[in-house]
């Protein structure tokens, strides 16, 4: 069995040796006697059918697998990648590994072979959870999305998978995490630290950050404390006394308001807080973010989790992403799907850097030189023009209470903001 260093020397690139060598001996201790199972032709065909890979990609995967089966160094590297993503006890995903130049134009397919091997693992996981096979088939499409909507875009149409996206695939094999229509949902305790109250009669909703949260002058959050230097930043307040909650609230438009409001707990009830079971929403690439598609997905999620996880009642969907950056409402036309979707949600500020999420738009890890960024799509051009003005980019967060789904389409939280309590 060769070492990680020997294999990278054969590839002609040892720059990532430290990361490739991580857990190498542990992975090789589990190396199958007959080589990785995911290199077998029949297995590849079954996985391609299950994941929705097209015939062209299947043919290329079969061709690469034949080469890898005959080259133990490539087979060991593929196994190590698969082991690191799916089999290691603790997450230790591969990062920026070199793609084997010996595979030529097909070099991105080595890691895609390791990725599609998650198919039987997802099937087994879903069977243990008792969810229908149709949901499994829908969820398994994600690896094809990683290939077709991201890697192909970054590599001139060639198939493969980015290693930084492979790490995410581990969750599908371990968590209550499913694709239901346009969106994906992961049942887990809410990580965001905030408290949300609803008026008992009107249904109006108000969210508060915890006391002592630092905000920029205009009510946003930075990833690093030093980014607030030289700015009129401020700290939020939150207290409970005399049957009231009093604090600095978050506007549904996505920023904290530098004022205090007091809510009587006789009139307002707590409906969501950190640690409550919630649906973390994830948005696969692929377009078609119409309100109808989003509504259908949310309705399916509500009904699905109530049916299959009745012992974990959830009240809300939440997410943090560049997609919920309210600057998009300045950048895109009002008719854009992302803008319309944002206006249906309760947006909230989240800590972010000036480059958060731009990888998904430009396939470049920031910071990067704006003049070198692609301007192939309307979204890319609009974002670059916005950044050229010197404005700081940010990410954003959202939540949506499932009991409000009957109001989805009427911008319920934005309407509430017009009569915000004082």
UniProtKB/TrEMBL annotation:
Signal sequence, renumbered to the chain: none
TM regions (residue ranges): none
InterPro entries attached to this UniProt entry: GNAT_C, NAT_N
Domain N-acyltransferase N-terminal, residue spans: 43-161
Gene3D superfamilies, per the entry: 3.40.630.120
Domain GNAT-like C-terminal: 178-396
Name of the featured protein: GNAT-like C-terminal domain-containing protein
Biological source species: Oligosphaera ethanolica
């Amino acid at each position: 069995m060769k070492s990680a260093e020997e294999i990278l020397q054969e590839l002609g690139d040892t720059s990532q040796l430290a990361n490739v060598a991580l857990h190498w001996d542990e992975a090789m201790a589990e190396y199958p006697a007959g080589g990785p199972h995911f290199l077998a032709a029949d297995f590849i065909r079954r996985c391609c059918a299950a994941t929705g890979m097209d015939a062209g990609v299947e043919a290329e995967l079969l061709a690469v697998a034949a080469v890898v089966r005959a080259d133990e160094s490539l087979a060991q590297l593929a196994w190590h990648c698969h082991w690191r993503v799916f089999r290691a006890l603790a997450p230790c995903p591969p990062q920026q590994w070199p793609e084997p130049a010996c595979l030529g134009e097909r070099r991105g397919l080595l890691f895609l072979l390791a990725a599609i091997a998650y198919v039987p693992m997802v099937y087994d996981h879903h069977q243990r959870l008792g969810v229908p096979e149709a949901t499994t088939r829908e969820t398994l499409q994600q690896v094809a999305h990683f290939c077709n909507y991201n890697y192909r875009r970054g590599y001139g149409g060639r198939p493969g998978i980015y290693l930084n996206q492979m790490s995410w695939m581990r969750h599908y094999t371990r968590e209550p995490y499913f694709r239901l229509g346009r969106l994906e949902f992961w049942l887990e305790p809410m990580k965001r630290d905030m408290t949300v109250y609803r008026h008992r009669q009107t249904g109006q909703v108000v969210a508060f950050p915890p006391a002592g949260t630092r905000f920029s002058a205009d009510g946003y959050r930075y990833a690093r404390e030093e980014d607030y230097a030289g700015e009129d930043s401020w700290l939020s307040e939150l207290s409970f006394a005399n049957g009231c909650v009093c604090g600095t609230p978050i506007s549904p438009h996505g920023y904290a308001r530098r004022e205090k409001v007091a809510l009587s707990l006789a009139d307002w009830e707590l409906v969501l807080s950190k640690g409550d079971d919630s649906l973390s929403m994830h948005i696969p690439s692929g377009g078609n973010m119409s309100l109808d598609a989003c509504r259908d997905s949310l309705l399916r999620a509500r009904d699905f989790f109530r049916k299959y996880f009745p012992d974990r009642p959830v009240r809300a969907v939440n997410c943090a992403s560049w997609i919920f950056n309210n600057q998009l409402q300045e950048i895109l036309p009002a008719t854009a799907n992302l803008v319309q979707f944002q206006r249906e949600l309760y947006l909230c500020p989240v800590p972010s850097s000036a480059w958060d999420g731009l990888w998904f738009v430009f396939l470049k890890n920031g910071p990067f030189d704006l003049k070198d960024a692609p301007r192939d799509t309307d979204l890319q051009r609009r974002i670059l023009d916005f950044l050229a003005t010197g404005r700081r980019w940010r990410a954003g967060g959202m939540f949506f209470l499932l009991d409000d789904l009957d109001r989805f389409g009427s911008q319920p939280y934005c309407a509430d903001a017009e009569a915000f309590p004082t």
